[in-house]
TIM barrel protein
Amino acid sequence: MSIHIAGAPCCWGVDDPKNPYLPPWERVLKEASQAGYKGIELGPYGYIPIDIERVQAELSKSNLSIVAGTIFDDLVTASNLEELLQQADDICSFMTNLHFSFQEKRGHFTPPYLVLIDWGHDKRDYKAGHPDQAQRLSKKDWNRMMSHIRTIAQRAWKRYGVRTVIHPHAGGYIEFEDEIQRIIKGYPIRYCGPLS
């Protein structure tokens, strides 16, 4: 059995793509390859440009594959759904048009993935790591977030064949044990296809 190890640009301090002090994405790919990685995640939306030919050339030089793309955004607010779907379209279309240099054909869990991370809520960000102090979502808001997650996952699967996964993150509304348990009960993780 072989194991392929992938990384993410956040390991190079890549956070907000508007941050002028981030390392160039080409350097991150080169150093990821030098470190022995075979795959890497795209980083925050907009960090690696949505330019198939340019990015593919750099990936080929580094013998890397893109294994995932991430939506790191507000998954709760109703008015944000169209923006989330646009990101899903951009990321999934981009990833599925890149050459993939290694492929594990085991079950339904093959890359690339679309990773969803809830983020962008000051009330939760300031209480990150404090489950006893952090405000939880109301049932209505939780159900809306779950609806958004299902809508994004269905879009990614039906249009692009990309499986969506959820990443609990400090400062978002999917951080603490009770929220992770709630997600597990409400999100059928055994499926890679359309969610019902």
